[in-house]
Specification:
Helix content is 37%, strand content 20%. It is built from 10 helices and 12 strands. It is globular. The N terminus is likely disordered.
């Protein structure tokens, strides 16, 4: 499942960071993720990814999710929010008052039963990299959520952490700057990025898929933080 078509980006960048991985590369990456304690469930297309992800979530669960093209275009986000099977936290959080209910918002967002999302890069050695304008989903990703499920396209596979950070800076972030509705916000944006390799974090049980669908818990991670600015763009997982 590929959800990225950024026609304004340089063709060589799109080819390098937007092309789905071949089967051999996917199999190497899956093996590395599983060796790091991350379960991987592969799906042939968006419909199968949706079926797999929804099958992992018990009815009645509190479910939170970040901004993600993968979740939106697969229909997973809509199912979570409108089916009535789950307790979706995202609409509830957005309806709350930031001044008077800030503490409750923080608690709801930090430790849901299930956290859904994606990442911006997956290394062949089995590490996950995620960038966030606010940093709000990084806590649940690492340890806060009872279960973390990430839906990740194979175009996000990179050779190593360095190339993963390049994908974020040269492809993901630039695509946000080129989006007409976000140009102004992105000129003054800051981004937090997390790279993680799961091994033995007791706080989260994980399931994953490389859209394919992935989940992870992390015990080793690095947080690269740029100085905050006044405006931040939405860093949809791309």
């Amino acid at each position: 499942m590929t959800t990225e078509l950024y026609t304004d980006l340089d063709r060589s960048i799109r080819r390098r960071f937007g092309t789905p991985g071949d089967d051999a590369r996917v199999r190497r990456t899956v093996a590395a993720l599983e060796a790091n304690g991350i379960s991987v469930l592969r799906a042939a297309d968006a419909a199968e990814a949706k079926r797999i992800v929804l099958g992992l979530i018990p009815d009645g669960s509190q479910v939170h999710h970040g901004a993600s093209q993968s979740l939106e275009q697969s229909g997973i986000a809509e199912e979570i929010e409108k089916s009535g099977r789950y307790e979706p936290l995202r609409p509830r959080i957005w309806s709350m008052d930031r001044k008077t209910q800030a503490d409750e918002i923080r608690r709801l967002a930090s430790a849901p039963d299930v956290m859904l999302g994606s990442v911006h890069a997956v290394t062949e050695s089995g590490s996950l990299l995620a960038a966030s304008a606010s940093g709000s989903q990084l806590g649940p990703y690492v340890a806060g959520a009872g279960r973390l499920i990430l839906v990740v396209g194979t175009q996000k596979i990179v050779s190593n952490l360095e190339e993963g950070l390049r994908r974020i800076n040269e492809y993901v972030f630039r695509s946000r700057m080129l989006a007409p509705r976000r140009r102004m916000a992105c000129t003054a944006a800051s981004t937090r990025s997390l790279s993680s390799t799961a091994s033995s974090c007791p706080a989260a049980s994980s399931s994953s898929s490389l859209t394919r669908s992935s989940a992870s818990s992390a015990s080793r991670w690095r947080n690269h933080l740029r100085p905050p600015k006044s405006k931040r763009p939405s860093m949809r997982s791309s």
